[in-house]
## 1
Amino acid sequence: RAKAAGRGTWRLFEPEMDTEIQKRRQAEIDLRRAIAEEQFEVHYQPLIEARGGVLTGFEALLRWHHPERGMISPAEFIPLAEEIGLIRAIGAWVLRKACADAAGWPGHVRIAINLSPVQFVNGHLVQEVEQALASAGLAASRLELEITESVLLQDNDATLGVLHRLHDLGVRISMDDFGTGYSSLSYLRRFPFDKIKIDQSFVRNLGGEKGSIEIIRAVVGLGKALGMNVLAEGVETAEQRGILEVEGCDELQGYLFSQPRPVRDVPAIIAAHPMARDAAARGPLLVV
Ligand code: C2E
Ligand code: MG
Ligand code: MG
Ligand code: MG
């Protein structure tokens, strides 16, 4: 009886699997071609200090211009690239490109780059980061690497070892999308993150869904207690900004300030925000 049920199930899914497999094969071919033909582009979104609006850096966000399908979201193609192992090549390219771009920006502007958990497995991540910094001529202190909790799900000494070696280079490590995984708190104990990025789902519900403000408050308290910077993602409205500033978030990021933009727009975004220098110069004026 079990056998019959099994065969029935198999038949039921067969045609669907065919198209799924075909779609995947095509996507795989397209992705490989995308690397060869340089169809990728890195866009940059500013990170802003909550108090004073000083620009501290940019997050690098990958874009794929598909020749037929147009712009494809990383949320769609990164999981596939991870599955078929192409994320290593793509990730290495993003590291080199974003570090090279950032080397042309003012010295206090940092670059934040997302890493996939796959880049931590059997790879050469530390060497890749070192090489990207060296060939760009970028100081390690200007680089932030963003990881999600899924990196620490591969809870092994190798992963922690890589994180520590990256940190020892002088690179900052951020915990991205905080609050969306499970047992987030225990992860914070396992590695001394420099920054926590509160996931945009909590920011989106500010002023709406009950409890979001309490979660923000708790994460800010936690970050302060552990000596970590706290950034809120997905800030779209002045109201959200106001609440996040009052709650003591250190940094903000979102469409309110800017969408992710191509590299040529970066100088204008930098020019539109006060610099750390300007803020320091303004300091005494603010006190008076
Ligand atoms: P993430 O690292 O959490 O990046 C933030 C995402 O939120 C970006 O989506 C950004 O465009 C979006 N965002 C920023 N401000 C707002 C806002 O105010 N409202 C809303 N609704 N969204 C906002 P994006 O660019 O589509 O990237 C999605 C995810 O793809 C990223 O989430 C990251 O996990 C991944 N990703 C992007 N680039 C890379 C990359 O180079 N390597 C790897 N491994 N992952 C990447
Ligand atoms: Mg990120
Ligand atoms: Mg995020
Ligand atoms: Mg995300």
## 2
Amino acid sequence: FIAGKKRATEVAHSVWRNVLRKGDCAIDATCGNGHDTLALLRMVADESGSGFIYGFDIQSSAIESTRCLLEDSLDPDQRRLVKLSLLCHSKMEEVLPEGTMVRLVAFNLGYLPGGGKDIITLPGTTLPALHAASRVLAPGGLISVLVYVGHPGGREELETVQSFASSLPAESWSCCKLERLNRPSAPLLLLLLKK
Ligand code: SAM
């Protein structure tokens, strides 16, 4: 799945497709323009109306873009399978019904494409969000983190994600990194699989 001219997001989606099943519950921790939310919903929604996506973003313009994309792309029955929250992803547990375990938490870090570059994900909230994601993840589930390093602060955020992943116990987590060695400024995909 890393062959050819695939963009990093397409590579991430290929991985998600291998982890998610119809009826699963997943989290888009950074909705942005909603492309990942839509992709996730299509992977989990089944005809009987199960499968659910919780989406988070701190920018109202991002939540609005996501809502519009979902309205244009899904029928009303499928739209009911998504809950969008204008909230920091570090607070994801405040939105999930008690006891909910999810199969995938997707982070697509950085800034809103097409929006201002002044609002970006930051290590100070990304780290507690990763901790929260690790608590709500079901065994067999995946935390997927796409990290961009081309903007100021991107490399520091990568360090934060890497050191979190490295600290997870090997008995219960399998953590790896997909990196384009011949394109050092390309985004990296970190995959944290809970055994
Ligand atoms: N997944 C998106 C898509 O498919 O279009 C792209 C996400 S974009 C690279 C990163 C998003 O993270 C931005 O929309 C930004 O507002 C959001 N963000 C920044 N800090 C956040 C936080 N603490 N909690 C949730 N979202 C945050």
